[in-house]
Recover the amino acids of this structure.
């Protein structure tokens, strides 16, 4: 490969060969922009940002500190592309929207797709939202308000209202001519929807199918009728699952009467898909706020404290179990030395199981239909690893404290706790899902409570029974 | 809404209003199929599966047990849609490919896009792969082998080779006629690529742009020239990041000489994006195998044992620290009761920070440019929560054991450990990323080692100094 690129050397100097060649935002650029902002050199800032695409400016904005971020918006003023705002979220977006004038935001709204406009307005407080909306032309305002009227995390919030819908008796030629003559089409679209007289979708035709078909053919003849339609109040998680399963480029959204009201595109669904996986990760680790990274230290402290408080409860519960055996520990202090091993191994084995179960629930690979088989598998895994590590830890303990009986006690406790971890790691998320609670939110606390209490109780209890 | 649907009641009985109306695979279906498979009622199995789409059959296959899964493939025989295989992965796919005859797999290959065929062959051992490939027509075989020759997780593996490339001097009309006349087009495409005489991409035109443009216009006049091109050896994680940033539907892939060699579409990128988020989650919890859920109990036990072994090392390290203070614990057994609280709170606070940092690194929101600012923020968060929980735990300890000095000691240890957790939670992943190691893989072990060692050492050490 290097031979080849040397041969073609002078001719393909413009050929990108690495990520850095393709993507402009790197540490050097960030530092240069920071320097320009801090020396208030507006001209330099503008020149540095001019070659960047909106998504790159958005990335730059996220990486900058809060002060620099605001300076950047003030410096760019009207030159700030609204598409940059679309790519931002949470506290960073809220921050910038406060700096921008309501007038500037209002002017941007008509240029955006409905879902994008809704994304911006979601981040504003009611007063500011009203200020902005009062400056938006009436038809755009109505569309945005309709979008905001759907519940958060529903298909209605994800969809855009601009779409192309034609009757089944139109020919391919008519559709193409219609597209050529209509100015106000959506920015991007991948399918033409075919509707009945009551505006209900009865089929769809992908653009590539349309392109391949001769002009006189009727839409009715080439439309796909088995397409997936999304009810407007479907949860975004379910929407994203359907997009992934069927590899959809876009899908029509219908209201309760079956009328076509919008379209969701792949990029919205992909964002939800990644967001949901990330959410599971964050929640399992006790980070409840999706925008934790972007938030101020004070707000981060507050949101994380809730989880730490729950965890304190679990830790105190474990301490109460240990306190039951104070007399035993006083006599055999080796127990205090070894007991964290039992709890920690149980906790870790349980977390492995829990994580796999939570993801499998999210991807619908774990369902009521195979739940018992999976619980069984995890108990087997827990037993097998329990035996392996029981032998290992038993030997370590027996030799360290020259007490074979201590080795046996810790080995038995280890096996019991690893099996408990396998059971708790599957049954807790299954149980939470069953009663309609997100298994990622509360599962870790329950799991740690189980593995700590069982770990300490069995180990210290067996020691009290057999070693005194 | 319910009012409305009641009004339209009889007319829209076919209108889907929930996920279950849209998606066919549910527990009832799984149970019915299982029963049919177990009673060897092939006709019933076929009838149950007939209305399902390939992705739904794939989902069903995942949820079924191993035996039923194999029975299903044998029952369906040639009726098994190859698109079903494409939607499977890892052990489940490998399992089915073993049951199917090489002939059946070989016959499927020419119908697939290159990336899909590569996906199937990746799961086979060399002998079987050769058996299959020897039955595939030469041109398809060459395309698949070329795909397999790229490194795993590279753009070359993700791309398909079928695409539409035209010269810049063609008119829109010529392109449309070409699409209408060519039989062997890719199944799905979203852009037409414009190439120079050396087959290097110089622009692209989305189908919707093409459709809106009148026939005599030249491709040169409407092509977008700023499109993102992907080097063939770019890592799939970087590819997915670019798709997300720029909301791409598809992107051209080029070789080292800049020639167009393939195209990557949004569905491939979305899958990678979700996979990477899921991988971070799994790795942080010590699950190294991406297909852990689908694997057999034995293989799952083995892959998870590695992590448990590492964790055992950390736990023994913590025990060694405790052992330093055996004499102190013997005199004040309350220390043994309370010490897990300090370690556990540090571990949890550290995990919160670590998780946020690992995801921010993956999404490139955390870079060298803002690393120090983020470390600073986490130290502040750690200090603030440290103080809050120090007061809380200090009071609990002081009253529980009626020893105010014990409360002070645990409070100070708590603050120190929470600050250490903030530092370790950011510096460890940043350090690992710097030396080119995936921060999600090893970070948790290091972090627990830090918070356990510091937690036990500071608490027991202060107790030894001030309480004896």
């Amino acid at each position: 490969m290097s031979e080849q690129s040397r041969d073609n050397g002078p001719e393909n100097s413009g050929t990108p060969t690495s990520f850095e060649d393709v993507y402009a935002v790197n540490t050097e650029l960030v530092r240069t922009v920071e320097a320009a902002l801090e020396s208030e050199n507006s001209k330099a800032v503008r020149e540095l940002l001019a070659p960047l695409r909106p998504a790159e400016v958005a990335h730059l904005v996220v990486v900058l500190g809060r002060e620099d971020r605001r300076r950047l918006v003030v410096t760019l003023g009207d030159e700030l592309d609204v598409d940059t705002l679309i790519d931002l979220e949470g506290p960073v977006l809220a921050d910038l929207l406060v700096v921008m004038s309501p007038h500037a935001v209002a002017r941007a709204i008509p240029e955006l797709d409905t879902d994008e406009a809704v994304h911006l307005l979601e981040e504003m407080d009611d007063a500011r939202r009203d200020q902005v909306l009062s400056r938006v032309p009436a038809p755009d305002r109505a569309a945005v308000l309709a979008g905001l009227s759907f519940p958060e995390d529903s298909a209605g919030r994800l969809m855009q209202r601009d779409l192309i819908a034609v009757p089944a008796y139109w020919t391919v030629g008519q559709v193409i001519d219609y597209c050529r003559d209509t100015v106000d089409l959506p920015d991007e679209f991948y399918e033409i929807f075919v509707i009945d007289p009551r505006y209900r979708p009865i089929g769809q035709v992908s653009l590539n199918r349309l392109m391949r078909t001769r002009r006189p053919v009727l839409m009715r003849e080439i439309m796909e009728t088995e397409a997936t339609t999304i009810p407007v109040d479907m949860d975004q998680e379910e929407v994203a699952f359907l997009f992934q399963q069927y590899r959809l480029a876009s899908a029509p959204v219908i209201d309760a009467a079956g009328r076509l009201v919008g379209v969701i595109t792949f990029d919205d669904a992909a964002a939800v898909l990644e967001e949901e996986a990330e959410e599971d990760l964050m929640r399992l680790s006790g980070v409840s706020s999706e925008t934790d990274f972007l938030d101020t230290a004070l707000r981060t402290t507050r949101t994380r404290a809730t989880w730490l408080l729950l965890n304190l409860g679990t830790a105190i519960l474990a301490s109460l179990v240990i306190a039951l055996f104070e007399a035993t520990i006083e006599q055999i202090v080796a127990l205090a030395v070894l007991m964290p091993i039992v709890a920690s191994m149980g906790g870790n084995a349980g977390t492995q199981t829990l994580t796999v179960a939570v993801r499998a629930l999210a991807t619908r690979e774990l369902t009521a239909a195979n739940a018992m088989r999976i619980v069984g598998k995890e108990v087997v895994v827990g037993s097998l690893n329990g035996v392996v590590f029981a032998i290992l830890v038993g030997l370590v303990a027996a030799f360290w404290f020259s007490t074979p009986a201590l080795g046996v006690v810790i080995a038995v406790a280890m096996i019991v706790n690893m099996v408990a971890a396998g059971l708790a790691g599957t049954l807790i998320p299954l149980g939470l899902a069953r009663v309609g609670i997100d298994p990622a939110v509360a599962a870790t606390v329950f799991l740690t409570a189980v593995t700590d209490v069982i770990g300490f109780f069995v180990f210290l209890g067996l020691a009290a029974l057999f070693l005194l």
